[in-house]
Amino acid sequence: MGGQGLSAPAGATAGLWQALGVGALRLLTRALAVAGIVGVISFALMRSLPGDAAYRIAAGRYGYDIVDTAAADKVRAELGLDNPWWQQLAAWLGDLSRLELGRSMVSGEPVIEELAHQLGHTVGLSLVAWCLALAIGLAAGTAVALSGRGWLDRLLGMLSLGFKATPTFVLGLGLATLLAVHWNWLPAAGHGDGTHLVLPALTLALGLAAGLSQVTLHRMRQVLAAPSVAFARTKGLPLVWVVLRHVLRNTAVPVTAYAGMQLVLLIEGVVVVESFFAWPGIGHALIHALIARDVPMVQGTALCMGLIFVLLSAMVDGLCWLLDPRLQAKG
Amino acid sequence: MNPIPLRLNRRQAAAMAILTACAAWQATPAGAAPGDSKVLQIAAPWEVSSLDPAKAGYVFTRMQVSETLVGVDAQGALAPALASAWEVSANQLVWRFRLRAGSRFHDGTPVTAADAVRSLERARANPGVLGNAPVQKISADKDSVVFELSRPFGPLPAFLAHASTQILAPASYAADGSVKAIVGTGPYKISSIQPPQKMEVERFDGWQGRKPAIERAAYLAVGRGETRNMLAGSGQADLVFTHDPANFERLKAQKKLKFQSLAIPRSIYLKVNAGHPALKDVATRRALSLAIDRAGIAQAVLREPRAAATQLFPPVMQEWHVPALQGLSRDPAQARELLRSAGWTPGPGGILQRDGKPFKVTLRTFSDRPELPIIATAIQAQFKEVGIDMAVAIMNSGEIPGGHKDGSLELALLARNYSLVPDPVGTLLQDFGPAGGDWGAMNWTSAALRDAIAALSGASDANRRSVLRGTIATILQAELPVIPVLWYQHTATHSTRLANVSIDPLEISYRLDQMQWAGKD
Q1: Which CATH superfamily includes the segment(s) B35-65+186-256+496-521?
Q2: A180 Cβ under 8 Å from any chain B Cβ
Q3: Mind listing the pLDDT tens digit for each residue in A215-236?
Q4: Could you state, in order of their start, the residue ranges of all structural domains in chain B?
Q5: Hey, which of A205, A233, B114, B232 would disulfide with B240, CB 3.0 to 4.6 Å?
Q6: What is the pTM of this model?
Q7: What is the pLDDT of residues B49-66, one digit of tens each?
Q8: CA-to-CA distance for A68 and A72, rounded, in angstroms?
Q9: Distance (Å) from the C-alpha of residue A117 to the closest C-alpha of chain B?
Q10: Are A221 and B226 an interchain contact pair (Cβ–Cβ within 8 Å)?
Q11: Is A35 within 8 Å of chain B by CB?
């Protein structure tokens, strides 16, 4: 544990390139597999929903007040909803292989254009939330570990448990009631300038920070108790340098891995948070597409979220690899 | 576990924590700036899902960006809009709508009759109201748009107040005929639009009418009711539409808000399959009606006692509401008596039976309007009291027209909008036609009713129209092909910094051009 020094093993450059190549190949395979699986599953799930999709799509387009059997029949004919399921699936997979995601059944716009508009919002929100979670989680965990006070430990434990157990929706409602309605510091919904980002990002971040702070706290305690730290202290290294050079890096590996796992929660939370704060991202689009039975949009959004997940977890793997000399040594 | 040699003091620990935090922190701009105070902020649940007027066109007419040929005045009567006047030929088959002289699109081009025809032809080809009118040809004649009909059709001007018939400039359309921008003629023009959620408008200087006091407005689609409540409660939105009833009550504690709750021409009723063995006789349908505690549901679910329906058409539809009709009310004893007279006898478990079959039915409803499932379960409990076993199936709205078509529907609970066009006769034609209607009667027909509706759509004499409307309301009340439950209430809040706010019960316009900031002239 620890004390292996900061210099990378010899031949690192060649190893790095090789590792990058393997990593890229693995990433590509994973992305393709996720694309296929997500597309087929969302197609199958949408097909298995009860009721006639033509009515639902027509209601999404024109409002259900307008929709009658004639309008539904028109939609059915236009979209080929009567074709056998395998033809519809094959058409979608064929489009996908040409990097085309089809057109939204509701708005008639190409799915890729709608996603392009929403993706930026979702990625922005997710990144800010993730960084905020890291900041809060690391700061809280580090502070409590270094202070060594039992009551702080218990307080952090209780807070973490509380935030983790609170559904995102309730957390968002609570934060918005306090920060937007009661104190009127922040806008309660919408998008535009940076202030709109704070509430949704904070809502997402608090849930994530809860777990992160605990992992940081426990890992840092282990590291601080390690002989290497005692040695560094004994040889007269100032405390700040001990923490910066030995403790932080050793703590960082499991924390980074854990933060990567948290991305699952983040992607799940985005759906709820975007819809609650009227944030025009992919999660929000997914909900609307689900309600309107807009199969191409559901496939497109699910695909996009799946790919984001693959990309982010690859980044986490890469980061862990860079942080942990033991992984590099293994090649 | 205890880190023996190093125990940081509090200051060191804090410094370390901040340092760590800074490493991971990516600046998020903070600080409060909820909206520019000069922009009127509007929040409503409806998304700008598309630029196509057939899809979400009502957002553009409500924001007064685009206009239809015909509008409505404060009393809900038809009024000139982009058409300054209209007339119908003696044989009632040719209508001429003269365009307002000198009107211009937001891109500066003058409005021509040919432009209007293009927009109207598009509206006619898409699902929407105009396709249901007996229009044979739409043509341009100098400054007029001419409609040639296959039969007399009085409600045509009302149909032309529907948002799907809004007139857009030629520059609005892409080469393939799709809509790429909204270039309208209203007092406001779009300054930025980000579908599906946001649209900003500013005053159009080329507007011929009175100059609106509000210079800029922003529309935000906020799907969740809780979020809209917060926008209203915090004052971040000046004008918020549609609050759920429970929260509307709670918001009333806010001093900086003004409340609008008004009946709109929308009724919640039970659609009945009158061909179903258990529901085919009028006595049973009247018993169902007598079993429903409308006042209780109105109070408990909509928090508005005035919402209890005593007949199909709400009082806000002044011409259609007949005060003299004996109102629908609750009387479980009479309901049981009627059921007994219809041949129902108590069976096992308190459930009525007739010819050895228990009175078991399924009611379909949907959750697009969140109060519908709640009302459905209330009715379920009330039916149980008189011995009817009703299951509630919450499905998607399409299962109602679908079940109407394949005959599988027994009962449905739905909300019907009579203001899709300001004259509800178009809706009634659809609902009570010879084969019933997807959202109206099922396996029930009345020649007298059909004659009255047909005569009404061709009649122009005011007295005769009034008599016909009375006949229609009376037949529906006696036969109950649909069983009215509630009259819908439209809720809106606005901040006290806004003056001259009025809410259009027909939801055709937000009337931004009439509003002003409080404290200014």
Answers
A1: Periplasmic binding protein-like II (3.40.190.10)
A2: yes
A3: 888 888 888 888 887 888 788 7
A4: 35-65+186-256+496-521, 79-164, 263-488
A5: B232
A6: 0.79
A7: 788 888 888 899 999 999
A8: 6
A9: 9
A10: no
A11: no
